[in-house]
Amino acid sequence: MRGSLALILVGLLAGCNGDAPGEWAAIVYPDAGDRSQYSTTYRFQSLAMCRRAAGESIAASPEPAKADYRCGYQCAPDPAAPGHPVCRSMQK
User: Fold this and answer.
1) I want to staple 42 with a disulfide (CB 3.0 to 4.6 A). Which of 8, 25, 26, 58 is the partner?
2) pLDDT in tens, 20-61
3) CA-CA distances (angstroms) from residue 30 to 4, 54, 79, 91?
4) What does DSSP assign to residue 67?
5) Cβ pair 25, 53 in contact under 8 A
6) What is the 3-state secondary structure (H, E, C) of 18-54?
């Protein structure tokens, strides 16, 4: 009994990610026609969370109709272009 309880506990803890950082980043462009201006928010745990956050950011922007976004997977700042993320893949 004690062994099976320990196995259940380990299984439950393995499924919990609490505040673990995610692998998705929201890249929001206030003006879709000018991709040189953007803001990046890292650490979303899922594509859905990234999309939701990007949508909220766009809704709060001065001109939401002009804005656009992309969600990047496994992004990191580009050492050759400070502030610009390089991502393994991008999705909308």
Assistant:
1) 25
2) 568 999 999 999 999 999 999 999 999 999 999 999 999 999
3) 53, 11, 24, 17
4) -
5) no
6) CCCCCCEEEEEECCCCCCCCCEEEEEECCHHHHHHHH
